[in-house]
Amino acid sequence: MQLNNSLFTKSLIFQSAAVACYFYIGYDFNRENFFGLLACFSILFATYLFLVKSAKSKSLDQLMVIAVLYRLFFILSIPTLSDDYFRFIWDGQLILNSINPFDFLPSEVSVEFPNKAELLAGMNSLNYYTIYPPVAQIIYFLGAWLSPNSILGSIVVMRSFVIAAEVGIIILLPKLLQLLKMNPLNSLWYALNPLVIIELSGNLHFEGIVLFFFLLAVYLLALQKEKLSAVAWAFAAATKLIPIFFLPIILRKLSFKKVALFYSVFGIAFVALWIPFYNSTLLPHFLQSVSLYSKTFEFNASVYYIIRAIGFEATGWNIIETAGPWLAITAYLAILIILLKKKIISWNGFFIALLFAISVYYLLALIVHPWYSITLVFLAVFTRFRFPMLWSFLVVLSYWAYSNPAFQENFWLIALEYIAVIGFAIWELMKDQNKSPILNFQKSNYL
Questions:
Q1: Mean per-residue pLDDT for 78-105?
Q2: Phi and psi of 157, rounded to 5°?
Q3: Alpha-carbon distance 314 to 169, whole Å?
């Protein structure tokens, strides 16, 4: 790195501490140790801010190599903060045994396969049908196919895809920033973010694959290759569904003729990816699982928890089955209003609109897992807003729930998380109202 002696010494100290924390979280961590996790994240975020703030154009390539190495530290680890991987491997084993993973609840599967009992014991989704779209399912299958007898082996195979996607982002992100006449150093806000590294490469969440395809879609869109962009967008949505919510913005970015072509190609590609899994039970089973996210599950929510508390006072019971769907409808309407508000001229405005649309969606959601904020970190790279980076640190407070056997959340910590993030976002908006994404999606002087 191109640093003077003082900066080099500080960098060496910070990075040594970061390496120790990444290895600890990856290989020797118990998620019940909340304060250990918080201490590690504090060290990692201090390192993150130092590296990003001290970065120069000449050091970008070196820092990107460091970002890749951090991810590779986790290659042989078993996720310590999430047990979702049990379901990933389970779905992959079903496909390997010629069983459609959307057809059966885990308890209904009678076929025997390696590690079945261990997968069932570790799974957190025994009572609902799989909710993971086809691109993710293909990777689960490859994990089971290439390592049918080893849970760790399947994890390594799936993680290889996640890390490959992350490397793709790290390579493509500065190129897109340069193409859009933005500062390529902004890519470090994503590449070096500790939550991104730990939750994707470490805990095996597939947002990295989603964001790679979405980044590719935007890159192709910027090159005016709309049909290829639509295909990449479809792959993103067929990995996790969230990019579907981004689609209305195309109406404000392209001409009517190009919009029709984009949506047509997207629709064909998206449906085609589902064809291998299609039968009469696919849609009802999938929608049944999706509905659980608006009527049953709750974790690290903000607006919903306030409404729930009011509901308890008024009725004496949890009003989730009523409040959940209404909040979902409100969130979808808010997304449409933000994305369709004005003609979006600048790419900066494009990303600002997406950033605030999805931020509102998560503020109204019943479930906000830590890795959900990664999408906001990615979008913020293209804007002047940094509240998602603060959120990516404070969202770790939600892991308090795993520190006690009852999985009881600490609502004071959740309140701290959201008050700080919302307060910082409002402060950023008020710094220059002429650049407010709520008021103006037109050309910006930013970068």
A1: 97
A2: -65, -50
A3: 48
- Alpha-helical runs (H) found in 249-346: 256-274, 282-295, 303-315, 320-340
Has residue 367 been placed in a domain? yes
Report the amino acid identity of residue 441: F
74 Cβ contact partners less than 8 Å away, ≥ 6 residues apart: 22, 26, 159, 197, 198, 201, 202
- What is the 3-state composition of the chain as percent helix, strand, coil, each rounded to the nearest 5? 70, 0, 30
**Beta-carbon neighbour count of residue 152 at 10 Å?**
11
Q: What residue type is assigned to position 363 of the chain? A: L
Structure token digits, residue 390? 């603060």
User: Quick check: is 334 in a domain?
Assistant: yes
d(CA 403, CA 376): 26
Cα separation, 109 vs 101, in Å, equals 10
CA–CA separation, 119 vs 87, rounded Å?
7
Quote the CA–CA distance of 221 and 231 in Å, as a whole number: 11
Burial string for 223-240 (b: 16+ CB within 10 Å, else e) reads eeebeebbbbbbbbbbbb
Using only C-alpha atoms, what is the Rg of the chain? Answer: 22
Q: Helix or strand or coil: residue 128?
A: coil
Residue 6: pLDDT band with limits 50, 70, 90: low
> Could you give the number of structural domains in the chain?
1
- The answer to whether position 37 is within a domain reads no
Q: What sign for the dihedral angle of Cα 313, 316, 319, 320?
A: positive
Residue 341's pLDDT band (cuts 50, 70, 90): confident
pLDDT single digits (tens) 410-428: 999 999 999 999 999 999 9
> Residue 141 has which token pair?
């299958």
The DSSP-derived string for 69-132 is HHHHTTTTPPPSS--THHHHHHHHHHHHTT--TTT--GGG-----TTHHHHHHH-S-TTS----
What is the chain's length?
447
Range of the domain at 341: 297-447
Let me know: does 151 contact 115? Beta carbons within 8 Å: yes
pLDDT band at 292 (very low <50, low <70, confident <90, very high): confident
430 lies in some domain: yes
Is there a contact between 74 and 84 (Cβ–Cβ < 8 Å)?
no
Local confidence band at 432 (pLDDT 50, 70, 90 cut-offs): low
